[in-house]
Amino acid sequence: MRRILILALLFATVPLAVYGAYHHGGDTDSDIALQAYPAIEGTKLDSCALCHSGGEYEKKGVIVQLGSCQWCHYSYGYDGSGDIADTLNGYGQDYLSSGKTIQAFSDIDAQDSDGDGFANGVEIAALRFPGDANDDPTKVPAPYRVLTLDELQTMPSHSQLMLMNTHKSGDFYAKYTGVTMANLLDDSHILPSATGITVFAPDGWAQYHPLEPDNDPLMYHVYGVYPEAKFFYSEEADDSINPNGWCDYSSPSVEGLQNDVPIVVEGGLQMILAYGRDGSYLEPGQLTLSNKLDGEGPFRVVPPQKVPGPPDQATTAVSQDVVWPFDEDADHNAGYASRSATMIRIEPLPEGTTDIDILEAGWNYVDEGKILIYGNIDPLGTMMVKINELYDLVMAMDQDAFALRNAKKILLNSIAVIRAQLKRDNEQPVTVQLRNLVARVDGCIENGKPDQNDLLGSCSEQARVYWALHELSVLQAIGK
Ligand SMILES: [Ca+2]
Ligand SMILES: [Ca+2]
Ligand SMILES: [Ca+2]
Ligand SMILES: [Ca+2]
């Protein structure tokens, strides 16, 4: 029960959407959106979430959070039997009632569909959701890093033979290989204020883990070694001998092990981000037509048992008159092992930041073998990416957008100076220089038109640079 509450709380404060491919057969609205706003192509706005909301439902006592695409499929149905209007956010409803055309997009441009104080057109220019009041141009995506399978494999690897104890799916021993979560977080430079992680899979699943050991039996910690486990073997449980067995002992690593003998794991049992199992890469997950996840890879977060015990009989089995009957209080760690993890959010999100643009971190991450780590981490890497993007953005701007003939050069030079200071990690000058530069692109935001010292004469271009600098300023303040 406590777990359900915690998940519900997390979701209540930080709404999340997970996006998939959304340019459906028969869907013309997403193409019209791209015609109306070509600049959103490939951004987080180029997704279901532009017009559709996410949602959640309860499944066996657990709140399952669905992103906009899954929510639409869940509530509208793959057969289209539901009412599509129920899945629309405020912006989608305004678009619908304005006639669903290119003209409709410009007709509602000046409206504030989600009531967050920013007009739809302003939000779209800043790449913020016009149908989500929790997203607006002042909100800054949290710092992040993306890791590939190759990169993870260059980090120290950790292997452990362990029991995966399930409620009802059948238990198994397996030797998982990966990186310890502790190592991964240290390598990501998590900040001292970090308290836990939430792991997300593209089917909408989310699982929270505290950093430090916790008394709650359902809280599997990130840092620290788990108790050594004994090997539990019984012919009755062995599904290769007994057709009614419930444990798979086929892992080559169990060969030669005796019942009731401790399993020795070098470095001890730890929570790992696994990419291998019994010498093979994890099989990538995929969503079945009934919205169920098959496969467990390319990455699975694997927590060992906090209270080691034998594989117990499935809760659904008819016969519980066995050597290890189902035990409600047993440590069923497998249910907390997130399959096909594509995102790890380090909690809490730093002040002034919000969930990142996670358009890419869905099923393509499963296919590409990538994982996204974001939240309470050192912002420097993200700032370097953002300042390079800003430089390229200004570089590509038309000369006409600038207020003076040499204004483009001045702006580019200023950005280059800040970038150089960032590289040297000179905190003080970066903060001051960012503030000074904002003052030279702030007229339109402050007073609706360029002011005396502004470098850009075009308000739309000013807004893009202004919000980009705002983003850098918020990131710069993280952890300070
Ligand atoms: Ca708005
Ligand atoms: Ca908004
Ligand atoms: Ca079991
Ligand atoms: Ca100014």
Walkthrough of the structure:
- This protein is an alpha+beta fold and 480 residues long.
- It folds into three domains: 2-138, no CATH class; 147-354 and 370-375, Sulfite Oxidase, Chain A, domain 2, CATH 3.90.420; 380-477.
- The chain is built from 14 helices and 19 strands.
- Strands 5, 6, 10, 12, 13 and 16 form a six-stranded mixed sheet that branches. Strands 4-19-17-7-8 form a five-stranded mixed sheet.
- Mean pLDDT is 88; it is low at 1-22.
What is this structure's SSE topology?
Blueprint: H1 2-13, H2 29-36, E1 55-59, E2 62-66, H3 68-76, H4 90-97, H5 102-107, H6 120-125, E3 140-141, E4 144-148, H7 149-153, E5 158-164, E6 171-180, H8 181-187, E7 196-200, E8 206-210, E9 230-231, E10 247-248, E11 261-262, E12 272-277, E13 280-281, E14 286-287, E15 293-294, E16 300-302, E17 343-347, E18 353-354, H9 363-368, E19 370-375, H10 380-395, H11 407-423, H12 427-438, H13 443-447, H14 459-477
Parallel strand pairs: 3-18, 6-10, 17-19
Antiparallel strand pairs: 1-2, 4-19, 5-6, 6-12, 7-8, 7-17, 9-11, 12-13, 12-16, 14-15
Helix pairs in contact: 10-11, 10-14, 11-12, 12-14
Bound molecules: calcium ion (CA) (4 copies).
One calcium ion (CA) binds next to loops.
Low-confidence stretches: 1-22
Can you tell me the number of structural domains?
3
Measured between the Cα atoms of the first and last residue, the distance is 37 Å
Rg: 25 Å
Mean pLDDT: 88
Estimate the global geometry from the Cα principal axes.
elongated
Classify the secondary structure makeup into a structural class: alpha+beta
Output the CATH topology of the largest domain: Sulfite Oxidase, Chain A, domain 2
